């Protein structure tokens, strides 16, 4: 497809794609690059070399150094890649689906259904995103922490299934529960942009003559929706989704940094950086706590942003040039 | 324009109520016990006493009733006084802040406001100007450089940037310390000699004609301000650049040149006013979006504002505080949006003169 | 000496897909007070030609790569920036096709007209506004003084175009270039605008270059006309000559496809087979050759230049259509072979 060709020739997107490829390889090869110690309970819990509370710099044994509590930073960065992909992809999946659903219904059926859905969307959008994520995460953690959560348990289990491949019949692992609450919070407040965009595109396309023409021939509503309207609406969503994966990972990292996302010792980049909070005055000596995971986050998000940016430039009809 | 504003004014109550409902929904997911701190500061540990409180404040009543009570207040059966009520300004009691949520917000707000205020200058001024330059020199060196900076800025998490900047400029160089004021300045500000008009140190220092305190507060503000603005700066630069590029392609630009105007004038008088119209909306929203950034920035710099309060409360699972701050912030966001919308309507003659 | 004389103008656009030869060596002239009509299909280079004259081609991706443009004896292509700016809007004015997008939506009409007056005539705001009001009156806009404070979106389509014309005429230009000014308008408004322009022309006496793809308008307005195809001038003559004695195969095709009220027509309207060529990959010979009913071998190999075939009548063609036979155009032959 022309789009793929252009993605590969554009230098910005090419950089992004190469970066992503490197990350994917690291994620796949994590067990080889940073072998899981024998008695580890969970591969994603970073192994500790002792319990000393002073972070140690890079050495032969720990090439990226260790944090407070002697968590190996290198291990965390490598396995953190997997975490980042998981979180980013799953959140994007769910937010896009919800957004698509709401937006499609709203745009296609219009009327009072549209009005209500749009008001709801606006209400959700009235919350500053990070604040809402933090709020919902703390609420959810309170609820799940209690043990019985009723219908919300269903959501958590669904998420656990998709993210960790965990069977719905099993109890959710507490290590993962905290992560799931963060993800759930982001998903619940992260779908609105897609809904609006899809709805906008469907409204625009609805008024195009070819949908009308299809109707004239007698095509049924659903058919029109799928054959004619959705494809036009999908491309912008692709662009937004690719740019948003980065922002979801950033938001989750922020949650972890604040102590709300992944828990202490989990292989998550944001979580590792939160160790630096106690060491600000001597940060110059313990630079590795911030720099290694920090660079990982920046490059990861950058990669997605580059690809998304380039995708947007490529798919922008005005920039593809109309020869007059 | 009249219709335009009226429409927005009509939607606002729906939004405000909707926000309170969503907040209350989250609140209602907690147990009555957990919610008790909406009404009382000291939650007794004895089993029976808790039930008493729950009954007293109707924390087990049907949800709609509770919502009503929470919004407008409830008559305390013992004292006959009206207690609580969001509309009366009561957002509950904060475990973490050891005061009513409203009081804590009031106490912490000036610090955040000061931070946001100073951030607006580099944010709006610089990013818009740079965005225009990038567009005018499209695809040449300034544009390439700015684009690279913007996209990197857009990719850095605020906390990473904040920590890095602290690491270099504080830990290593010692130029800009965290927190709001140095110890000596802090003592002075809290003494009787200094009147705190606004609770914003920099402004108050000017009003008190104490330039040394002013400079000290600025010194402490540099790093947090830069950190707070970085991501938004990158975003606004990009938006301005795109808007300007679009505007430069418009037909009326050719018309302007065809009249014999010099290029600089053509850009300044014809392109920029048009390009800035969408930027106003985005810029306003970005400013408002600083709410998100302050949480992280204040935490990294140990800055006692609303953002760090939210972070502390969330960590302690002090849900009442968290919800209170979020409710307040959302209201500000909604009003801010209204102001931005009105501004947009005023500035664009196509809407102003409907 | 002609007021405007264009010789061998070449303008190209450098794009991702290749070099577009938008205008490939055209020559024409306009005399003082004369109206020249330029016709041709979309994409044939009409707009690019006149934009090149005004040096309004965006550089990148465009570039004027050859030729000269003599206005009153001076070569506009060699002028410095500030010199050409003194010509624009002042001695040569231009009005454009879509008045909605060609007028700045956030500036008042008065301000936009004043600009030219303040710049070229050194007027201050009051003087300029007074003159602008006069101009608006002249083009038939009622309550002119009040309308100065209105924005473009508050005008109707026809009135916007009148305002554009007023703006163009502000500094009494010697030449007015009109790039399809009526194409975006309703037919009845179109007629009004053409009438307006005729009246103004008679009053002021300026020369006009009128670009259009509407052959009817040219007939009623222009003294001479030039037919363009694929960046080339193919026929140039007084209007009556072209309509009465067309000599280029393309012109024949254009006129043949024109419905006429004064003839009884028994056959279908003819249309010209095929599509215009890709301006990136122009053939070495005549660009019209693939669609031409009179093409001979030479046409494919050697590009014809404008040569006189009568008094003030020039064509770029190797064939004398008054004597040659019609044949199937080469493109049609290819198409048939492919089947």
Features:
heterotrimer; B: 354 residues; mainly alpha; two-stranded antiparallel sheet; C: 339 residues; alpha/beta; eight-stranded mixed beta sheet; 23% strand; globular
Shape of chain A: globular
- The end-to-end distance of chain A, rounded to whole angstroms, is 25 Å
Could you say which overall geometry of chain B the principal axes of the C-alpha atoms support?
A: globular
Radius of gyration of chain B from CA coordinates = 25 Å
- Counted beta strands of chain A: 0
Helical segment tally of chain B? 15
Mean pLDDT of chain B: 85
Distance between the termini of chain B: 6 Å
Write the layout of secondary structure elements.
The complex is a heterotrimer of chains A (324), B (354) and C (339).
Chain A: H1 2-9, H2 11-28, H3 30-33, H4 73-109, H5 111-125, H6 129-146, H7 151-164, H8 174-188, H9 192-206, H10 209-217, H11 221-258, H12 269-274, H13 287-315
Helix pairs in contact in A: 2-4, 2-13, 4-5, 4-8, 4-9, 4-11, 4-13, 6-8, 7-8, 9-11, 10-11, 11-13
Chain B: H1 2-28, H2 32-35, H3 47-56, H4 63-72, E1 74-75, E2 82-83, E3 93-94, E4 99-100, H5 101-136, H6 141-155, H7 158-172, H8 183-190, H9 201-207, H10 211-248, H11 251-258, H12 263-300, H13 306-315, H14 319-347, H15 349-352
Helix pairs in contact in B: 1-4, 1-14, 5-6, 5-10, 5-12, 6-10, 7-10, 7-12, 9-10, 10-12, 11-12, 12-13, 12-14, 13-14
Chain C: E1 4-15, E2 18-30, E3 35-39, H1 46-53, E4 62-71, E5 74-75, H2 81-87, E6 92-95, H3 99-102, H4 109-120, H5 125-138, H6 144-147, H7 157-169, E7 175-179, H8 187-204, E8 207-212, H9 215-221, E9 224-229, E10 232-238, H10 239-244, H11 249-256, H12 297-301, E11 307-310, E12 313-315, H13 330-338
Parallel strand pairs in C: 3-8, 3-9, 6-7, 7-8
Antiparallel strand pairs in C: 1-2, 1-4, 4-5, 9-10, 10-12, 11-12
Descriptive notes:
- The complex is a heterotrimer of chains A (324), B (354) and C (339).
- With 324 residues, chain A is mainly alpha-helical.
- Helices cover 70% and strands 0% of the residues of chain A.
- Chain A has helices at residues 2-9, 11-28, 30-33, 73-109, 111-125, 129-146, 151-164, 174-188, 192-206, 209-217, 221-258, 269-274, 287-315.
- In chain A, helix 4 (73-109) packs antiparallel against helix 11 (221-258).
- Chain A is globular, with a radius of gyration of 22 Å.
- The two termini of chain A are 25 Å apart.
- Chain B is mainly α.
- Chain B is built from 15 helices and four strands.
- Chain B has helices spanning 2-28, 32-35, 47-56, 63-72, 101-136, 141-155, 158-172, 183-190, 201-207, 211-248, 251-258, 263-300, 306-315, 319-347, 349-352, and strands at 74-75, 82-83, 93-94, 99-100.
- In chain B, helix 1 (2-28) crosses helix 4, helix 12 packs antiparallel against helix 14 (319-347) and helix 13 runs antiparallel to helix 14.
- The longest helix of chain B has 38 residues, at 211-248.
- The model of chain B has no long low-confidence stretch (mean pLDDT 85).
- The longest helix of chain C has 18 residues, at 187-204.
- Chain C has helices at 46-53, 81-87, 99-102, 109-120, 125-138, 144-147, 157-169, 187-204, 215-221, 239-244, 249-256, 297-301, 330-338; strands at 4-15, 18-30, 35-39, 62-71, 74-75, 92-95, 175-179, 207-212, 224-229, 232-238, 307-310, 313-315.
- Chain C is globular and about 70 Å long.
- Chain C has 339 residues and is of the alpha/beta class.
- Chain C has 13 helices and twelve strands.
- Classes of the chains: A mainly alpha (324), B mainly alpha (354), C alpha/beta (339).
- Chains in contact: A-B, A-C, B-C.
- At the A-B interface, helix 5, helix 6, helix 11 and helix 13 of A face helix 1, helix 6, helix 7, helix 12 and helix 13 of B.
């Amino acid at each position: 497809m022309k789009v793929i060709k252009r993605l590969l020739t554009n230098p910005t997107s090419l950089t992004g794609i190469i970066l992503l490829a490197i990350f994917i390889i690291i994620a796949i090869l994590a067990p080889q690059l940073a072998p899981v110690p024998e008695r580890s309970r969970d591969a994603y819990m970073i192994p500790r070399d002792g319990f000393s509370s002073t972070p140690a710099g890079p050495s032969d044994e720990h090439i990226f150094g260790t944090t407070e509590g002697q968590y190996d930073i290198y291990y965390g960065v490598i396995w953190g890649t997997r975490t980042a992909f998981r979180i980013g992809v799953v959140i994007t999946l769910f937010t896009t689906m919800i957004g698509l659903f709401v937006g499609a219904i709203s745009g296609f059926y219009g009327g009072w259904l549209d009005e209500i859905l749009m008001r709801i969307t606006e209400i959700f959008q009235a919350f500053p995103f990070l604040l809402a994520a933090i709020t919902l995460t703390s609420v959810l953690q309170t609820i799940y922490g209690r043990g019985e959560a009723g219908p919300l348990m269903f959501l958590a289990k669904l998420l656990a299934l998709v993210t960790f491949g965990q069977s719905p019949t099993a109890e959710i692992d507490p290590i993962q529960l905290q992560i799931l609450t963060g993800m759930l919070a982001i998903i619940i407040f992260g779908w609105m942009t897609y809904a609006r965009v899809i709805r906008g595109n469907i409204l625009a396309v609805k008024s195009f003559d070819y949908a009308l023409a299809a109707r004239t021939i007698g095509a049924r509503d659903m058919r029109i929706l799928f054959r004619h309207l959705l494809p036009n609406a999908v491309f912008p969503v692709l662009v937004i989704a690719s740019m948003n994966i980065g922002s979801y990972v950033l938001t989750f990292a922020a949650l972890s940094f604040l102590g709300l996302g992944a828990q202490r010792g989990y292989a998550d980049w944001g979580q590792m950086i939160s160790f630096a909070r106690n060491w600000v005055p001597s940060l110059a000596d313990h630079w590795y706590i911030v720099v290694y995971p920090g660079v990982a986050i920046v490059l990861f998000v950058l990669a997605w942003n580059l690809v998304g940016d380039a995708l947007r430039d490529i798919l922008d009809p005005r920039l593809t040039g109309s020869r007059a | 324009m009249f219709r335009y504003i009226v429409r927005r004014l009509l939607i606002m109550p729906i939004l405000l109520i909707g926000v309170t409902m969503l907040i209350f929904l989250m609140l209602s997911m907690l147990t009555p016990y957990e919610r008790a701190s909406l009404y009382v500061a000291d939650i007794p540990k004895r089993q029976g006493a808790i039930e008493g409180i729950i009954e007293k404040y109707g924390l087990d009543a049907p949800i709609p009733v509770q919502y009503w009570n929470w919004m407008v207040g409830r008559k305390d059966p013992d004292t006959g006084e009206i207690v609580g009520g969001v509309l009366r300004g009561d957002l509950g009691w904060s475990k973490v802040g050891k005061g009513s949520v409203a009081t804590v917000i009031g106490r912490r707000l000036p610090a955040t406001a000061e931070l946001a205020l100073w951030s607006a200058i580099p944010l709006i001024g610089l990013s818009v100007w740079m965005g225009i330059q990038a567009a005018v020199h499209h695809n040449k060196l300034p544009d390439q450089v700015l684009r690279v900076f913007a996209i990197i800025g857009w990719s850095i998490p605020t906390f990473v940037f904040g920590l890095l900047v602290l690491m270099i400029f504080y830990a290593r160089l010692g130029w800009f310390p965290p927190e709001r004021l140095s110890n000596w300045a802090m003592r002075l500000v809290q003494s009787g000699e200094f009147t705190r008009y606004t609770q914003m140190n920099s402004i108050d220092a000017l009003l008190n004609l104490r330039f040394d305190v002013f400079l000290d507060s600025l010194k402490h503000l540099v790093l947090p301000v830069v950190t707070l603005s970085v991501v938004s700066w990158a975003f606004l630069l990009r938006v301005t650049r795109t808007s300007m590029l679009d505007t430069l392609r418009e037909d009326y630009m050719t018309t302007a040149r065809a009249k014999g105007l010099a290029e600089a004038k053509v850009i300044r008088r014809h392109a920029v006013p048009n390009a800035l119209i969408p930027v106003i909306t985005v810029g306003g929203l970005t400013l408002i979006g600083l709410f998100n950034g302050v949480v992280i920035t204040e935490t990294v710099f140990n800055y006692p504002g609303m953002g760090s309060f939210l972070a502390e409360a969330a960590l302690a699972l002090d849900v009442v505080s968290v919800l209170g701050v979020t409710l307040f912030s959302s209201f500000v966001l909604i009003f801010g949006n209204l102001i931005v919308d009105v501004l947009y309507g005023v500035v664009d003659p196509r809407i102003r003169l409907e | 000496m002609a007021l405007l004389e264009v010789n061998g103008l070449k303008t190209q656009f450098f794009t991702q897909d290749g070099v577009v030869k938008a205008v490939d060596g055209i020559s024409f002239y306009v005399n003082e007070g004369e109206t020249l009509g330029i016709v041709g299909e979309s994409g044939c280079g009409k707009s690019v030609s006149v934009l090149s004259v005004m040096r309004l081609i965006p550089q990148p991706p465009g570039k004027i790569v050859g030729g000269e443009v003599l206005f009153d004896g001076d070569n506009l292509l060699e002028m410095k920036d500030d010199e050409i700016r003194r010509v624009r809007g002042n001695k040569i004015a231009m009005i454009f096709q879509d008045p909605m997008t060609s007028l700045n939506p956030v500036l008042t009409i008065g301000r936009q007209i004043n600009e030219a007056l303040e710049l070229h005539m050194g007027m201050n705001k009051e003087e300029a506004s007074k003159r602008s009001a006069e101009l608006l009156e002249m083009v038939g806009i009622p309550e002119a003084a009040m309308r100065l404070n209105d924005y473009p979106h508050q005008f109707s389509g026809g009135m916007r175009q009148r305002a554009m014309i007023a703006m163009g005429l502000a500094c009494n230009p010697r030449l007015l270039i009109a790039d399809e000014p009526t194409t975006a308008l309703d037919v009845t408004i179109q007629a009004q605008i053409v009438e307006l322009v005729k009246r103004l022309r008679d009053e002021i006496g300026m020369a006009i270059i009128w670009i259009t793809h509407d052959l009817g308008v040219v007939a009623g307005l222009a003294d001479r006309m030039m037919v363009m195809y694929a960046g080339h001038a193919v026929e140039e003559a007084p209007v009556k000559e072209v309509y009465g004695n067309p000599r280029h195969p393309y012109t024949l095709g254009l006129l043949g496809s024109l419905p006429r009220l004064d003839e009884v027509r028994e056959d279908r309207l003819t249309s010209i087979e095929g599509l215009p060529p890709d301006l990136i990959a122009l053939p070495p010979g005549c660009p019209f050759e693939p669609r031409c009913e009179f093409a001979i071998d030479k046409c494919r190999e050697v590009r014809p230049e404008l040569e006189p075939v009568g008094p003030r009548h020039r064509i770029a063609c190797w064939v004398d259509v008054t004597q040659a036979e019609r044949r199937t155009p080469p493109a049609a032959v290819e198409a048939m072979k492919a089947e």
